[in-house]
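Chain X:
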Amino acid sequence: MPTFAQALDLIDDPARIAEYRRLHERIWPEVAAGLRELGLSNMRIWISGTRLFMTYDAPEGFDPARDYQAYAAKPRVQEWDALMRTFQRRVPAAREGEWWSAMECAFDLDAQP
């Protein structure tokens, strides 16, 4: 099961960051269900200042650019995404058309002898 990592920034406003964190204490049930329907597991979002770092495990062959489309087409997910984007901004390294910026693994302890 591959693990994916992505980065995104929050708008630098302590009140907005607090609200973002509050909303993630219990995300909307339809959003959680949609992510699980994709086969995602162990999804976690870490925060340091304004930087968000998300990791998740996905089924073999999962392609975020392709497989998120059915999830993203759901009306409640679109509503959640629109709300979240009011808190967020792309990281400087984001590619054209990319919101959450894909990250490459630079070190894996399990791959070490």
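Chain Y:
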Amino acid sequence: MPVLFVFSTQLFGQTPAYHPFPTQNAYWREASSGYQCYCCSEYQYIISGDTLLNGVTYQKITHSGRQYPSSPAGDCLFGGWYTPFTNYRGAIRNDIPGKKIWFVPANEVNEQLLYDFNLKLNDTLVSTYINHAPSYGLFNIVESVDSILVAGNYRLSYGIALSYSPGNVFVHLVEGIGSTYGLFGSMGELMPPFEFGSMLICQSVNGESVYPESTMECVMITATKNVSDQMSFSINPNPMHDYATVRIPGNVQQADLKLFDFSGKEVGSYNNVIDNFIFFSAGLSKGIYFYQFDFGNGNLAGGKLIVK
């Protein structure tokens, strides 16, 4: 795995050139899950051409993927039957001089601020489509500013923390990428999402993965085939304490398992996992994680794991 270089802009006193969002041949691959949320899905947001709105050129965003059901207890049933979906999400445009991204939601005509990358250390985030306005004296702040290497160029990455919990970064905003919660992932109202969450898995531009790393295969979710009702992947117990057992369906011999924290950072990887594989929580802090099974040919399954 290549080394991801991270530099503090405070150390060098310089910032890299601003990098806008791609305008063609790009998609954001994501997943969402939660408890009793009807939000269990694997999907991507695709730039699907240009459109003219109010005399201004925007890039259309198509949302497509697979919607999975929940169990009677409210847990996501990834890997089983699913409902394919495709819909128009809206349109975005780059304001390069202003370092902003604007968004016109589907069936609306007025644009809203989606991202503002005019950020400095300790800034308070302004109200945007994904960030609620500060209220009751509580708000999101820029806890850290780093420069990371993405597709051969250094881009600014902003670590976001809650004003009442400084030092605890829960999401990152990255130039040209968006949020580690996903392109339209909400950063919550007064606190990070808990019973619902989305995560950015990767971004692909011109057929190549550019984030989080170029060697990662950024697989697009298709809805051209269904899978067996028996395709049930799980980790038990969940929540876990010291250890947990992996369960994979009988018609899958093995799969690769990855764990991501809520910022989208990979924190664990296990290759060639078989049914009843046991892994331990050593090295994992208490909190919410996403797990992802890769069982070949672009087939993925996953869900949310709580470590206590």
